[in-house]
Amino acid sequence: MKSYTAITYILSVGVVATAFQPSTVSRQVLRPVKTQAYKQSSTSLLSSAAADEDVATIQILMSDTGGGHRASANALRDAFNVLHETEPDRFPLKIHCDIVDIYTDYGPFFPYNQYVALYKIMAEYSFLWKWFYEFGSTPLGLWLNENALELSCFEPFQECLTRNPFDSSKNDKRADMVVSVHPLCQDLPLKILSSLDSNGASRSEGRVTPFVTVVTDLGGAHPTWFNEGVDKCFVPSDVLKKAAMDRQVKENQIVQYGLPIRRGFWRFGADYTGSPEEQDEATEMEGVHHKPTIRESLGLKDMTTVLIVGGGDGMGGIIAQAQAVGEKLQSLAASTNENYQMVVVCGNNKAAQTTLS
């Protein structure tokens, strides 16, 4: 499994640049939405399994265009893995997640099956990203994308949405619920689920399979993130709540909950050397949330701190931003006799790590 460990650098007046592994910030996790599942005999997601089953299933749709989408999918999976243990009254069944890079695994041809490679090119040549992003946000761009995607990918993506969550080589069992953590995984999957649930009668009506969007952007988001047909849309900020409502998502569909938190951040001081599946909740909860202890361990001083985050693959010019902010902080420190520190989260951006260290 690809690692998405965030590497953070402290660049401050009188503080040497230091790398560290992530700590715990919060234990808030996304809760499954209690809504009608696609099986007609079910009453909710966690009671939708057949009589001979003891596991509820969730398919998480994403694409590896940047590290954040898979990281969020993994964070949700890890949280779902422990809900049955920690809250058995609310979650009587174990929850199994099937994470799918739907474009890489099921895209029928170029460019759909090459989104990851194309993203890396656009991350290097940001003017390409800017053009595609801005044109794709226009009514014409949205219309072209929606129709081209449906024309080209309906059947292969339907194969994805009907695959067995426990054995991807089979199409004999569908997931009880679908979650999207990618902007291009709303429109077409919703149409496919409507078609499946209505036995092919409609691509716009008849869906009863629960569908949830978890927006993984923070301060701004492409319009394709938001579809008024979803059951719930989780957003991390006021700005994105407004963006969702501007796209006709109703307020009662929106849950402002923050971003999914990776398992390594649930508690500071717990042992995360093994795989997530090998950890147990009791051991993890032995960790601490004492902020002074965490700061000391990470080499952070108790002073004014500036946090800079950006695209993990280099999107957004984080090096230039960090250098400009660093120079400003140095100037402020000299003129005010105050101390400042800056934390830059570099993710997988090795060029930023090397330059800023």
Protein architecture, described:
It contains 11 helices and 9 strands. A 6-stranded parallel β-sheet has the order 3-2-4-5-6-7, with helices on both faces. It has a 3-stranded mixed β-sheet with strand order 1-9-8, covered by helices on one side. Residues 1-52 have low confidence and may be disordered. It has 357 residues and is α/β, with parallel strands linked by helices. α3 crosses α4. α10 links the parallel β8 and β9. 36% of the residues lie in helices and 13% in strands. The two termini are 27 Å apart. The protein has helices at residues 67-86, 102-106, 115-124, 126-136, 139-161, 187-197, 238-246, 281-284, 291-298, 318-336, 350-356, and strands spanning 8-12, 55-62, 94-101, 177-180, 211-214, 232-235, 254-256, 304-309, 340-345.
Brief description of this entry?
It is built from eleven helices and nine strands. The chain has 357 residues and is of the alpha/beta class. Strands 3-2-4-5-6-7 form a six-stranded parallel β-sheet, with helices on both faces. A three-stranded mixed β-sheet has the order 1-9-8, with helices on one face.
Largest sheet: 6 strands, parallel
**Helicity level:** 25-40%
**Strand pairing plus helix content: what structural class?**
alpha/beta
Q: Would you tell me the overall average pLDDT?
A: 80
